[in-house]
TrEMBL record:
It comes from Marivibrio halodurans. InterPro entries: ChyE-like, Class_I_gatase-like, GATASE. Keywords: Glutamine amidotransferase. One of its GO terms (cellular component) is cytosol. CDD domains: GATase1_1. Residues 73-218 form the Glutamine amidotransferase domain. This is Type 1 glutamine amidotransferase.
Length: 250
C-alpha cells in the first residue's frame, strides 16, 4: 500500500487588500493569489503529486490551520509579504502565536519553511531582531554565500555554486535566534538562510518565484529594479529538497 500523502499548507501573507495593486499580477496564473503561484512551483519542482496541498491567504481573512488533529498540516510553507513584520497587524499576531504554538509541540509539530517575510516572522517569533537593510532596498537576482554548514546542508543539494535567487526586501534578520544555524549570507544581510533545528528552516530569498512578477512588482518603484532580475529556474530545487528533508534534531 502506498504511503499517504503529506498534508502541505501554504500560508499566504502577500498583502491585505489595499497594500498593493493587484493589477501588477494580472498576467500570473491565479492573478495575485500567491497560493496558486506556490502550487505552480510544486509542479515545476516535480512534487505536486506527492502532497495534499492547500493554500490559506491569512492576510485576506482565511483562518490558520489547526494546531493539531487529523486535519493539521505535516508540512507548512510561510510565504513572503509586502507588509513589514513590524506592522503588527491582527493576522500577523495570530500567525506569530500559531508558529510559537507549533514550535512548542516539538517533534509533534509540522516541518516548516519560511520565505522572505515568512523567514522574518519565524525568526522574530523566536526573539530575533528584524531591521532595515543597511544601504536600502535589495531587489535583484543575486548569489548567496553558503557557510560551511550551508554547503553541506541538504536544503542546497544539487544547486549551483554559488546559488542565485530572487531577492525583494527592505528588511532582514539581523542575527539568528538562539540555537539557529546560519546556512547562507550576503555582505548586507548576515542571515539569509537558517536552520532553526527541529524541522524549521527559512530563507530571505525566493526559491519559489519566477523573475517576471518580481520585475513588475519592484519596477513600479524604479525601472532599474525591473532590469535586475533574470530567470533562475533551478531554484525550485530547494523546494523539492525541503520536502525531502528528514526532521533534524534541535
Amino acid at each position: 500500500m502506498a504511503e499517504p500523502l503529506k498534508r502541505l499548507t501554504f500560508i499566504g501573507q502577500l498583502g491585505a487588500p489595499g497594500r498593493y495593486d493587484p493589477a501588477l499580477f494580472a498576467d500570473e496564473p491565479g492573478g495575485d493569489d500567491e497560493t496558486v503561484w506556490f502550487e505552480a512551483t510544486l509542479r515545476r519542482a516535480g512534487v505536486r503529486e506527492s502532497v495534499r496541498y492547500e493554500g490559506r491567504r491569512v492576510c485576506h481573512g482565511a483562518p490558520l490551520p489547526p494546531i493539531d488533529g487529523p486535519d493539521a498540516p505535516e508540512v507548512v510553507v510561510v510565504g513572503g509579504s509586502f507588509h513589514s513584520v513590524h506592522d503588527d497587524l491582527p493576522w500577523q499576531r495570530a500567525l506569530t502565536d500559531w508558529l510559537r504554538a507549533q514550535r512548542a509541540r516539538g517533534d509533534a509539530g509540522p516541518i516548516v519553511l519560511g520565505i522572505c517575510g515568512g523567514h522574518q516572522i519565524m525568526a522574530r517569533a523566536l526573539g530575533a531582531p528584524v531591521a532595515k537593510v543597511t544601504g536600502g532596498t535589495v531587489a535583484a537576482t543575486l548569489p548567496v554565500d553558503l557557510t560551511a554548514a550551508g554547503a553541506a546542508h541538504p536544503l542546497f543539494r544539487d544547486l549551483p555554486r554559488p546559488p542565485r535567487f530572487h531577492f525583494g526586501n527592505e528588511e532582514h534578520v539581523v542575527q539568528p535566534p538562539e540555537g539557529a544555524t546560519i546556512l547562507a549570507t550576503r555582505a548586507e544581510m548576515p542571515a539569509v538562510a537558517l536552520d532553526f533545528g527541529g524541522g524549521w528552516y527559512s530563507v530571505q530569498f525566493h526559491p519559489e518565484a519566477e523573475a517576471a512578477p518580481f520585475a513588475r512588482s519592484w519596477g513600479r518603484d524604479a525601472l532599474h529594479y525591473a532590469n535586475n532580475y533574470v530567470e533562475v529556474p533551478e531554484t525550485a530545487r530547494l523546494i523539492r529538497n525541503f520536502l525531502d528533508l528528514e526532521r533534524r534534531p534541535r
